[in-house]
Amino acid sequence: MMIVAAARALAGVRTVFVGVGLPNSACNLARRTVAPRLELIYESGVYGARPARLPLSIGDPTLISGATSICSMADLFGLYLQSGRVEVAFLGAAQIDRFGNLNTTVIGDWQHPKVRLPGSGGACEIAINARQVFVIMRLRRRAFVERLHFHTSPGHLGGRCERTMLGLPGGGPRLAVTDKCVFHFDDVTGEMVLESLHPGVELPEVQAQVGWELRVSPDLHGTEPPTDEDLRLLREELDPQGLYR
Amino acid sequence: MPGKLMNMHDAIATCVHDGDVVAIEGFTACICFAAAHEIIRQRLRDLTLCRMTPDLIYDQMIATGCVRKLVFSYLGNPGVGSLHCVRRAVERGIPRPVELEEYSHFGMVGRYLAGAYHLPFFPLRSYLGSDLPKVNPRIRFVKSPYGDGSIAVVPPLNPDVAIVHAQRADRQGNTQLWGLLGVQKEAAFASEHVIVVVEEIVDEQVIRSDPNRTVIPGLVVEALVHEPYGAHPSYVQGYYDRDNDFYLRWDEVSRDEMAAQDWLDEWVYGVEDRAEYVEKTGVETWDRLAPGEMLAEPVDYGRYT
Asked: Residue A77 belongs to what domain range?
């Protein structure tokens, strides 16, 4: 459901910055359904990937064979990302707050970490430069927190106006897609708002997994379930072994 | 002129010394594990290791205690999870504490670029609104002299040694690389000494037939090593696939300090060189990792006489 909801949100999009795992499946599904002109960009230096198998990392050799272009990482970050040519980027995190700021660095203190996480990778500059960010992560109370332990990648900071004041070029988080529901980020305040519930999910279930008082859209609705074709593509072609379901 | 071609033992002994700043680059692809294992065997000490994604290669090196400091931007086992040896060192100081100097990917790329271009810093649109500059004072902000506000800058990175793995080179060290290019070119031009390790040594004429594919000229290469399968368990485009099973297995092995040591005893200290590792790994693995063929169309450079 996460993959299908994320894929739908890519309708009409031309360029997407892909991470491995769920975003990869979502982007490949979108290309086969709602966004036929979608070009997949990977931070490893790949533009226009046509993976023949499910890639197990963002540097998988299947992303290179048959791609439109391969470039150095300097070119990828400079010419594709920083120049504003990435329309949508997918990011995940260990922690997210109500303004879509992300922590992928550390649980606890940076100097004396309780859990040392991988760190930014490209996420910090992706969050700053992509025209929109779609966050994709599972809804868990330990992840949807009031205060991040570390701000790795900026979302709407303390509110959308702070992002504008700092002069960040990209638009910041627009959606957060989870395994239970979809949130959008308010156009004015930048705060996360519950937009739709996946089939079978009730509102209190979502509320219980969010560490702050959740705003709910007056237009709260059910997330449209996957079509038979979505399921067929995912199960038979994109992820036949069911690694990312 | 003395030849550049040497075996891995001599290349490491010539170019790498205790306390050096070493960059073994290669983003997912072409990660020279053969060189890392030789550095471990020669029991070098107090190294500062630079790499965007420390990956299993630095996890293994850190487990041996030869590392003092890590300069990096993504500390994970890609597609799998944590680097357990790095975490033991960072969280609990086992086998020794390791100092961290942390950037983002573009920040590391910028550092190599500044180093290679001989610039005092590299400006990039990153770090605004992030806590990274708070834990790394070397990430700074400067005012644009053209009045466009402030911009993040990172300092040049000029390693003592860069080690690059590639598909092929001629005997002068003119090196051709395809597939993912990572930051290998920038790292090589930024470094004092460069070791190139290749799957194949080819005639100069092969290199000259396709000069666009030459990423690193012999001009900057000090030592050249011929080491087939030298990047396993990472991959070399067109030569062998990534050994994803190994990446999963290392996740298991490295969770336990003793199990990691046993692995190093058997596969690093217990073999003399890469050739022995390749033989010990066995032909079934190499068959499993062999890709099918997918040739590029030839291009015509034209003959201008």
From this structure: 2-238
